[in-house]
Design brief:
The protein is mainly alpha-helical.
Length: about 400
């Protein structure tokens, strides 16, 4: 009997070890083709289904926990400084390469939260047809959509959670008009990064809440869709000046100047290698943004060297009995049908007689906890307030003109 127990424990231990080893593929040296990242709500149903199948398989293998653990462990080095954009672009590409090991044709789509900025709960992405919305009352577990009843094993064993900022609602996000005002005004990388990170980026994390407002937020697939949108915004700003594909400025977390030759934390690759989405190893563009000209790209002369990353689950590597990858909340969750992606595409409507509301300010305590800039967040709050006020003034003028025409 003892012999069989030992064999069983050995099998279980090997399974745990295999799932806790987090794959770290190298970037390819060149691009065999340039692929396109698209808005997730524009994907044909079959492409959406393929993406969902792939991320479910990544979850089954324990890789979502690995991404959450990795992001959490070096969070202080990649937020609140000029590593933010480049590092997260590399992080998303890491995720995408692992997706393509399962299905070579799948790309990370982006979530354009600017479409439903005034009422995010009406966004199809937050419905059961896509990735579900708020967690259920009591335990905040996500129980609908492609991640319904997912478990997670980092930082503790639990369900995947979301807890909307205002109970049943997230509050408003940023309108794209405000984002483009930032694009128009920011002339340096440091200015643009700070304004986006402390404005449009942060409000989405706070609005969804639960796991999404923590530094292990990559346990939620929506993290990658949200950051693909942030990456797209950066790519659009870069496309306005070819110099932005070769140059960065500002400082890292230790107040050391960041240049194109600075190394990204963990990956030990030069920041410059991540400055063009269609550069060697990245090999993608967004559906409505031009590719970087080849002559404008940073030329790297360095090859990264790093060891594989072992994701630490449950906060300790000294408790192997607890290191099993979290099971789904129900045994049949992994067999749930893949959403078709079309049945809950909600029409975006508002009462035309009501003014839009700007996003509410992010609290200083929340900002500091995420190593964000309280003063910059206040400036961005003023900017978005002013933009929403202009939108409301224009809508009032349109109503007056429409009423006069009707008379």
């Amino acid at each position: 009997m003892f012999k069989y127990i030992c064999i069983l424990l050995a099998v279980l231990a090997s399974e745990v070890f295999a799932k806790s080893m987090f794959p770290l593929p190298r970037l390819p040296n060149s691009c065999s083709q340039i692929s396109v990242r698209r808005d997730i709500v524009s994907l044909p149903p079959e492409e959406l289904q393929r993406f969902i199948r792939v991320v479910r398989e990544m979850h089954r293998r324990g890789w979502m926990d690995g991404f959450g653990s990795m992001h959490d462990h070096i969070s202080h080095q990649i937020h609140g400084n000029e590593q933010f954009f480049a590092w997260h672009r590399r992080f998303l590409r890491h995720f995408e390469i692992l997706m393509q090991e399962i299905d070579p044709g799948v790309m990370i789509p982006y979530w354009n939260w600017g479409t439903y900025w005034q009422s995010p709960v009406a966004d199809p992405v937050l419905t059961s047809a896509f990735f579900g919305g708020n967690g259920r009352p009591g335990d905040n577990c996500v129980i609908e959509g492609a991640q319904a009843r997912w478990g997670r094993n980092y930082p503790t064993r639990n369900c995947l959670t979301r807890r909307f900022r205002y109970g049943a609602t997230t509050g408003a996000f940023w309108p794209m008009r405000a984002v483009r005002d930032v694009m128009n005004m920011a002339t340096t990388h440091a200015q643009f990064r700070s304004r986006i990170e402390n404005g449009a980026h942060g409000i989405v994390h706070l609005g969804l809440g639960g796991d999404f407002e923590t530094m292990y937020a990559p346990v939620d697939v929506l993290f990658f869709l949200h950051h693909a949108m942030i990456d797209k915004i950066w790519a659009e700003w870069q496309s306005r000046d070819p110099l932005r594909y070769r140059m960065v400025d500002g400082y890292d977390s230790q107040r050391i100047p960041v240049t194109a030759n600075s190394l990204m934390p963990f990956y030990s690759e030069e920041v410059g290698t991540a400055l063009a989405t269609n550069g060697p190893g990245y090999c993608y563009v967004y559906d409505d943004i031009p590719a970087a000209p080849s002559g404008a790209m940073f030329k790297s002369t360095r090859r990264a060297t790093f060891a594989s990353f072992k994701a630490v689950f449950n906060g300790s590597s000294e408790q192997p009995a607890q290191n099993a990858v979290a099971e789904d909340m129900e045994d049949d969750a992994a067999e749930a049908p893949v959403p078709a992606g079309t049945e809950f595409r909600v029409k975006h409507t508002f009462n035309d007689t009501m003014d839009f509301k700007p996003p509410s300010p992010m609290s200083a305590e929340w900002l500091r906890r995420r190593r964000m800039d309280v003063a910059e967040a206040a400036r961005m709050q003023t900017l978005v307030n002013n933009v929403v006020a202009r939108i409301n003034a224009e809508r009032r003028q349109q109503r007056v003109a429409a009423n006069a025409k009707a008379v």
